Amino acid sequence: MFGNYLIGLREGLEASLVVCILIAYLVKTGRKDALKPIWAGIGVAVGVSLAFGAGLEFGSQELTFEAQELLGGSLSIVAVVLVTWMVFWMRRTARHLRAELHGKLDAALRMGTGALVATAFLAVGREGLETALFVWASVRAASENGEGGSYGPLAGVLLGLLTAVLLGWLFYRGALKINLAKFFTWTGGMLVVVAAGVLAYGVHDLQEARFLGGLADKAFDVSATIPPDSWYGTLLKGVFNFQPDPTVLQVTVWALYLIPTLALFLAPIGSGPSVREKKQKATDDKAGAAASAETSA
Predict the structure, then answer these.
(1) Phi, psi (deg, nearest 5) at residue 241
(2) What is the rounded CA–CA span in Å between residue 178 and residue 186?
(3) 195 with 11: CB under 8 angstroms?
(4) Cβ neighbours around 75 below 10 Å, total
(5) How far, in Å, CA of 193 to CA of 138, rounded?
(6) Burial readout 83-97 (b: 16 or more C-beta within 10 A, e: otherwise)
(7) Does the predicted model carry a pTM greater than 0.70?
(8) Distance between CA atoms of 161 and 171, rounded to whole angstroms?
(9) How confident is the model at residue 236 (pLDDT cuts 50, 70, 90)?
């Protein structure tokens, strides 16, 4: 449940911050007349995201078992790719998110109502579609692992989204000051761990669909030591999507994703010289070499 709460919180807060920044900018610049198109775009984005999630859930029920596992495994991998890209993008742009959105909103204000609706829809819709896909994959994995049916994971997601809405409102009212760069770094790192579990379970789905082999090759089986229905087994499943009897391929993919991705994500930004600094140093070196040659002559 914690892993799904984290997904709802992390993804929901991104969308909440986007909404707060857009609305606050319009209010402060005296353009309250543009609020209706913004809210219309946000409403359409939420509706499309819910419809996408519902389509995934109910559409997959009409498929055969193998087709369900193939679809689930494939979409789990797609979800992990999207979320991985998102956490790296947000870590890099969190400091400049406000300025970026203000620029897009200024351009939309000059173009008219349709552009305002489209700006809000694209800003919130991207987050909504990513959230729907990743939540569906995570809830599906948790449910098939026996974590309280689908109610436990969904409750975690909803609590996370509600917390995100509350934090967004406090942020808008000025009652909450947070370091967005640090917040998204820490929650992004935890989300990478959750994504590794979703990826491993996606591989397991593909194995059950007979798309990948090795289903009978177990890396280990600690079901007797960590019973899936115990409190600590449930905790491990909720946080890490832990499976007590994973296949060799699952463990291999999990490690190959988690270790390098987490290392890259937690590496200090700008720890080495920038491209501009490198170019400037090369120019200085050439100038110095030319001066030395003239002096020698």
Answers:
(1) 55, 40
(2) 13
(3) no
(4) 19
(5) 12
(6) bbebbeebbeebeeb
(7) no
(8) 15
(9) confident
Q: In this predicted structure, what is the pLDDT of residue 143?
A: 61
Length of the chain: 297
**Euclidean distance between the first and the last CA atom of the chain, given in angstroms as a whole number:** 75
Taking the C-alpha atoms of residue 119 and residue 109, their distance in angstroms, rounded to an integer, is 10
Q: In the structure encoding, which two tokens stand for residue 44, read together?
A: 């359409």
Q: In the prediction, which pLDDT does 252 show? A: 95
Q: Which two tokens stand for residue 2?
A: 């914690």
pLDDT in tens, 9-25: 877 777 787 788 788 88
**Which one has a higher pLDDT value, 196 or 268?**
196
- For residue 91, CA distances in Å to 14, 119, 264, 269 come to 12, 22, 12, 9
CA–CA dist 255, 246 (Å, integer): 12
Is the separation of the CB atoms in 184 and 267 below 8 Å? no
Q: Give the count of alpha carbons within 13 A of 211, CB side only.
A: 16
Q: How far is CA 134 from CA 33, 80, 81, 162, 285, in A?
A: 35, 7, 10, 17, 50
Q: Per the structure block, which two tokens stand in for 69?
A: 């596992």
Q: Please identify which residue in the block is written with the tokens 């070196």.
A: 285
Going by the DSSP 8-state scheme, the letter that residue 267 receives in this structure is S
Helix (H) or strand (E) holding 88: helix 65-93
Digit-coded pLDDT (tens) for 109-157 = 788 778 878 878 887 887 788 778 877 777 676 666 555 455 666 777 7
